[in-house]
Design brief:
Elements lengths: L1 E5 L3 E5 L3 H16 L6 H8 L13 H24 L6 H18 L1 H9 L8 H22 L10 H20 L12 H16 L19
Helix pairs in contact: 1-2, 1-3, 1-5, 3-4, 3-5, 3-6, 4-6, 4-7, 4-8, 6-7, 7-8
Length: about 220
């Protein structure tokens, strides 16, 4: 980017990619103040542009935040899909990798994570954001379907219900104990062990058992995956 003087002390702004600069500024402000702790004008100032400049790309602050959240969900979807790896080497082991990837994302991308889940953005009026979130959730639902398929047909829970339960578990652990910002709470164990134990209990209740390898997990017990 480059500045040039125009007239009496006025500065004209020439930006190679204003939209990206605003996205990056928003991420920095989210990390510093939270997704609700800054204004549109502050985002402009942080990007080094006039207060009017952001309106070239975004209607208001909410539209900027929607763009940030969509990008976050796209990254999230890619991370989950990579971890799931179409169920390889087997659905239960891949399911474990999926939970770990959820925690890794919350820790590595706290600003995106906050924009996605804590910015109070209405989904009904932002269909692109809703679709991005659903695509990420679809990876978890696909995984749940594969895990459910290991049960006899008469004992299979609805895969959507299972996906929602596992999502709630994963999101709760990630949001409370696995995030990478100052809101992370202390825990006398790793978030990974906490999540594994929670999902272990859940899946054992469904009748799903131990991993074929027989490797031991937390507290010397064989993990479910």
């Amino acid at each position: 980017m480059a500045w040039s003087d125009r007239g009496r002390g006025r500065r004209g702004y020439h930006h190679g990619n204003l939209k990206e600069a605003l996205i990056n500024a928003a991420l920095e402000l989210i990390a510093a103040k939270g997704p609700l702790g800054f204004t549109f004008a502050e985002a402009a100032r942080s990007a080094g542009v006039s207060q009017a400049a952001p309106y070239r790309h975004f209607r208001d602050r909410d539209e900027l935040m929607v763009d940030v959240a969509i990008r976050g969900f796209e990254r999230f979807e890619a991370a989950l899909a990579k971890a799931w790896n179409d169920g390889a080497p087997n659905p239960l082991a891949a399911f474990e990798n999926l939970g770990k990837a959820y925690l890794v994302f919350a820790r590595a991308e706290p600003a995106y994570y906050a924009a996605m889940f804590e910015a109070a953005l209405p989904l009904d009026s932002n269909p692109d954001l809703q679709e991005a979130g659903e695509r990420a959730f679809a990876v978890l639902r696909q995984a749940s379907e594969a895990v459910c398929a290991r049960l006899p047909k008469d004992r299979r829970p609805p895969s959507l219900m299972m996906a929602l339960h596992i999502w709630a578990l994963s999101h709760g652990v990630a949001s409370l104990f696995g995030r990478g910002d100052a809101a992370r709470r202390k825990l006398p164990m790793s978030p990974e062990d906490l999540l594994e134990a929670a999902v272990l209990t859940y899946l054992q209740g469904l009748g799903l058992g131990e991993r074929e390898s027989g490797a031991e997990g937390p507290w010397g017990r064989k993990p479910f995956l």
